[in-house]
Amino acid sequence: MARKTTIRNDDEEPDEPKRPTLGGDNAGAGNFEDPNQQRFDDELRPSKLEDVVGQIAVVERLKILLEATKKRKEPLGHLLLDGPPGLGKTTLATVIPRELGTELQITAGPSLGAPKDLLPYLTNASYGSVLLIDEIHRLPPTVEEFLYPAMEDFRIDITLGDGLNARTINMKLQPFTLIGATTRSGMLTAPLRDRFVNREHLDFYTTSELSTIITRNSNKLRTEIAPEAAHEIAIRSRGTPRKANNWLRWTRDFADARANGKITLEVARAALKMKGVDDAGLEEQDRRYLETIISVFSGGPAGVQAVGHTLNIPADTLEDEVEPFLLREGFIQRTPRGRMVTAKALAHLGVSQKSKSKTTKSNSDPPADQRELF
Ligand SMILES: Nc1ncnc2c1ncn2[C@@H]1O[C@H](COP(=O)(O)OP(=O)(O)OP(=O)(O)O)[C@@H](O)[C@H]1O
Ligand SMILES: [Mg+2]
Predict the structure, then answer these.
(1) Ordered domains of the chain (ranges, CATH)
(2) Spatial separation of the C-alpha atoms in residues 231 and 229, rounded to whole Å
(3) What are 334-356's pLDDT values in tens digits?
(4) What stretch of H or E contains 199?
(5) Residue 272 pLDDT > 80
(6) Given 25, 82, 117, 134, which residue is catalytic?
(7) pTM, whole model, 2 decimals?
(8) Catalytic site includes residue 183
(9) Closest C-alpha residue for ligand 1 atom 27
(10) Which residues of 329-350 are buried (b: 16+ CB within 10 A; e: fewer)?
(11) Spatial CB neighbours of 218, under 8 Å, sequence gap ≥ 6
């Protein structure tokens, strides 16, 4: 099979309103929505599986799948990639067809408002090619149902006409591989999830993995970086390669503007300080989130909807982009009654237990609508 990768991007406007995000430096924000972020991502995206840093177990399993697929000369089974934003779902989805030497088409859940939007992708899919549907949890139910026979039997059912005159015609498709990428696998319906024979979850990266990514990418960007500066950026990158890349770009700009272009430890620290990133990698919005739970909700429990209303940030943005890192680092806890800040968060923000319990006393029970059961 020819080694040709065709990247089809959507030029249609999504039917659903775009999900508001927290701003330019954000790690997440389903990057198809932000052309600048998408360009930055594409520039630094590894192009081969061997260039993918970290996710060792996932990469090992993918290597086995790819080898077996190549040996059998059959299409790869459908693959679901899930995990928080900026961890490499799109990266892996673009590397796989390159490794297989097949074509790749890319679309996203919010762009597929009706089955007719999906039709061109399915009919264009060649034997063994890959179709990536980003944010697959945002597919409307009609499109999802249209996808079922395409995934299972490589067939689509098209209904022509209305009422008594309606008839359904079946159309055969070339066997292809669907890669679904999602930050919310829990929102996928069971029938859709079950049609993915392979499922992989991406987790946060270690500091040393992020250091490696930063050092490699500074080479790509032709910027000199001291190893301790790469380590410093890595510590503050919330376990997320996209964040690490964005901070690398920023420190590089800072080094060019304020220093001699070399990213030293001092330059990295000054650059990140200017962006409000503290030594635990927390940014302004993380601190506001924690401070809101402490001051408005007496440290919690607080429902994410209520916190979102107070901060004027959509709850799903908080759930996708702010909370995963805070949870993982032990700054918050998710309890059946809502989010609670931990002693670690109080210590980090310099809030004493005493001053928190004082607030608790004066405001001990948040109103019912400020709690959330889940
Ligand atoms: N394993 C990795 N090794 C090296 N770089 C990586 C890796 N994973 C991600 N990156 C870098 O991080 C950037 C963002 O990754 P990617 O776009 O794949 O994230 P994503 O999981 O698709 O995020 P989203 O949920 O927002 O779509 C990539 O452009 C790439 O440069
Ligand atoms: Mg992506």
Answers:
(1) 31-201 (3.40.50.300), 207-274 (1.10.8.60), 284-370 (1.10.10.10)
(2) 5
(3) 999 999 999 999 999 998 765 55
(4) strand 198-201
(5) yes
(6) 134
(7) 0.82
(8) yes
(9) 30
(10) bebbeeeeebbbbbeebbebbe
(11) 224, 225, 230, 248, 252, 263
